[in-house]
Every structure is written in structure tokens, then in C-alpha cells.
Design brief:
By secondary structure, the protein is of the alpha+beta class. Helix content is 45%, strand content 17%. The strands form four sheets. A five-stranded antiparallel β-sheet has the order 2-3-1-11-12, sandwiched between helices. Strands 6-8-7 form a three-stranded antiparallel β-sheet. A two-stranded antiparallel sheet has the order 4-10.
Length: 289
């Protein structure tokens, strides 16, 4: 038809391959890849692939078409369309979104700041000696807001200083000096934007679980539950050994207190009698026998 634009076969094939990949795996995730150097991205893709999580980088239009087509069979995928923005990668994975989120967190590593970068947090430069020799570098540091001085022939920073607040643009001058001080304030890695597991959609805020804190809470809950069960005398495989041990110690203490001789209590009864005799002897001043 006049005016109709044909779609190149390779684009159709790419969309079909993405659609198949999404439908063949229970977990589909979108990740932000802006700012990740090409070499680092290739390594991350290789590492993820060895874990069974292929990462595909494709034009946003291809990802959208693939998700739209796959959503006809799995409607839960539709919310992901709102997250296909900027530079996007698509991961089709087995397992679950929580473990995938943790894996992606592990891809992050410190990286030097560049002029024009946004400070993710307050950038604190610690006081103390620097690797610089006295010279024009002192003026450069002071001009950039670093509290530099020369002390005993060495360039030092007189105190800790925040050289950039969170959200501020890092100037090229500050970025250069931070790198020379081996301070890498930025992180590079894959950020998970959103994920779908079968019919459930997950925003990244839901997946950002502090595993160490969760383990600590579970351990504390276990200790508290065990203590309560023991206090109540509630029998479980975990409490029975503790309850038997407590009952044993209580029985021995009662036998000793009532001077009831048994193979276990007699040594303690005799030891107690000996101590009491020694104490009485000391009070009366009687000679030792």
C-alpha cells in the first residue's frame, strides 16, 4: 500500500526473540545501564549469563514491542512498559526477583567522579596527609574548597571537609582532585527498575530487603520464642534438652538443700557440710582437728 513502511526482517526477528525469552522465564526485569562502561557491562552480562540470567541490551522500541506482545499471554507484564525509559536492559531469569536484586547489587563498584556528575551523597574528604608534594597543588586544592595547607614539608588537609553535598553537580576541578586523592564517590552497576515474577509485579522498593537485618531479626525471634517455650515448659525438639537439663539441675539442688543423699547429691552435701563446719570453727575459735 502507498505510504506503508515495511519493517526490516531483522527487527521483527529481534522482537520475536525478546518475546520468547520473556515468556520462557518466570522472572522478567528491567535494568538501567546508563553510565556503565562497555567493558564493565560485558563482564556483568557474562557473569549473569553463567547464573542463568541472560541480559539483553536492545533499543527501547524493541523492548516495548516484545513486552506488549508477551503481555497478551501474561498481562502482569504490562506495568513494565512504564519503566522502559532512557538506556534499558532486559533480563529474563529463573529463581526469584529478590535474589536477582541482590545479584544486581553485587555488580555495583566504586568509580571516579567526572565533571558534571551528580553527588549521590555528601562527599567527605578526610583530614590528614595527602600524597602530594608542596607546590601549586595547594592552591588548586584550596580553590576547589579543600582545606589544604603545608605542614612539616607535607601537603595536608587540616580537617575533614564535605566538598560536595548530595545532589550537587561535581565540577571537573573537584572530580580531578578527588580521583588524585583515590576517592571514588560514585558507583557503577546495574540498577533494577522493576520486575515481574509470573503474575506478580515488584517495584524496586519492595525488593530492597536488607538480608543481614532480616537474618538478625529471625535469629532474635528464634531466641525469644525458645526462651518463652522453655519458661512455659512447652515441649518441642529444641526445648526438650533444655528442659531436661533444667529439671536435672533443679532436682540436684533440691536434694542438696534437703540433705537427701544420692550418688549425685552426696558429694555436694558433704562439701556444703565441710564449708559450714569451717565457718563455725572460725566463729568459735576452736582448734582445727
Amino acid at each position: 500500500m502507498p505510504g506503508r513502511t515495511s519493517v526490516p526482517p531483522e527487527k521483527v526477528a529481534r522482537v520475536a526473540a525478546l518475546q520468547k525469552m520473556v515468556l520462557d522465564h518466570p522472572v522478567t526485569a528491567l535494568v538501567a545501564i546508563r553510565g556503565v562502561p562497555a567493558a564493565a557491562l560485558q563482564k556483568m552480562r557474562k557473569d549473569l549469563l553463567t547464573r542463568g540470567h541472560p541480559l539483553v541490551v536492545a533499543p527501547n522500541s524493541a523492548i516495548r514491542h516484545a513486552l506488549e506482545a508477551a503481555a497478551e499471554q501474561r498481562p502482569a507484564l504490562k506495568p513494565l512498559l512504564d519503566y522502559v525509559t532512557d538506556q534499558t536492559g532486559l533480563i529474563a531469569a529463573d529463581g526469584n526477583p529478590f535474589s536477582l536484586y541482590q545479584e544486581l547489587r553485587q555488580t555495583r563498584s566504586p568509580t571516579p567522579a567526572r565533571g558534571g556528575s551528580i553527588a549521590p551523597n555528601d562527599i567527605l574528604v578526610p583530614g590528614g596527609e595527602t600524597p602530594f608534594r608542596p607546590g601549586p597543588i595547594v592552591a588548586e586544592l584550596q580553590h576547589a574548597g579543600f582545606p589544604a595547607a603545608i605542614e612539616k614539608g607535607k601537603v595536608v588537609l587540616k580537617k575533614d571537609a564535605v566538598v560536595a553535598k548530595a545532589g550537587e553537580v561535581i565540577s571537573a576541578e573537584k572530580a580531578n582532585l578527588l580521583t588524585r586523592l583515590n576517592i571514588f564517590p560514585l558507583e557503577v552497576g546495574l540498577d533494577l527498575r522493576a520486575a515481574v515474577e509470573r503474575e506478580t509485579f515488584y517495584a524496586p522498593s519492595v525488593l530492597a530487603v536488607d538480608l543481614a537485618a532480616q537474618r538478625a531479626q529471625l535469629a532474635q525471634g528464634h531466641r525469644q520464642a525458645l526462651a518463652l517455650a522453655v519458661e512455659l515448659g512447652y515441649f518441642t525438639p529444641e526445648t526438650v534438652p533444655i528442659l531436661i537439663s533444667r529439671a536435672y539441675r533443679g532436682a540436684i539442688a533440691l536434694a542438696v538443700e534437703s540433705a537427701y543423699p544420692t550418688a549425685k547429691s552426696l558429694p555436694e552435701i558433704l562439701a556444703r557440710a565441710f564449708r559450714e563446719a569451717k565457718a563455725l570453727q572460725a566463729l568459735t575459735g576452736a582448734p582445727a582437728s
